[in-house]
Design brief:
There is one protein chain. The chain has 155 residues and is mainly α. 38% of the residues lie in helices and 9% in strands. It is built from six helices and four strands; from the N terminus they run H-H-H-H-E-E-H-H-E-E. It has helices at 13-21, 24-34, 40-47, 51-63, 85-88, 91-104; strands at 67-71, 79-83, 129-130, 136-137. The longest helix is centred in the middle third of the chain and has 14 residues, at 91-104.
Length: 155
């Protein structure tokens, strides 16, 4: 098996995020967890993953603080995988990926679901990037800027 490059400690926040969630299985597990799956067998059945791959991914997601284990909610001897705040924070990323696919997929007619507001039943608006003052931004309106170095305390 080819060893994967590690981005741990990279200065780029995108590379650092990919260290935690940079494979498709992880994102699909998160998708299913957001929709309520909690047990190993549920993930395995829904995603059709090999048990060993699922086991490694779930363990990694627990280690990364994306999921945590909890006793089964039905009181059985099983454990469940529950999204942490860090894991739930990935929801907008999955929505952005979904909306990107809906816009640029070669066969959007094959997408059988739409994301709707649960309270109103209406489609969710496209995510937007906005400035602090509310202006809509696109890529040319942004740039990367170095953060000031942290100030050292004098002894």
């Amino acid at each position: 098996m080819v060893k994967r490059t590690s981005f741990e400690g990279d200065a780029c926040p995108i590379a650092r995020a990919l260290e935690a969630i940079g494979d498709w299985w992880t994102l699909l597990i998160i998708r299913e967890a957001l929709f309520g799956l909690r047990r190993f067998g549920e993930f395995q059945s829904k995603l059709g993953m090999a048990r060993n791959i699922l086991s490694v991914r779930l363990r990694s997601m627990v280690d990364q603080g994306i999921l945590e284990t909890a006793p089964a909610s039905d009181g059985s001897a099983y454990q469940e995988y529950v999204l942490t705040p860090k894991g739930r924070g990935l929801f907008p990323i999955l929505v952005a990926l979904r909306q990107w696919s809906e816009e640029f997929d070669d066969h959007p007619e094959e997408i059988t679901t739409i994301l709707v507001d649960r309270a109103k039943g209406r489609p969710v608006r496209k995510l937007e990037l906005r400035a602090e003052d509310g202006r809509l931004l696109s890529q040319p309106d942004t740039m990367l800027k170095l953060r000031p170095a942290p100030r050292r305390r004098s002894a």
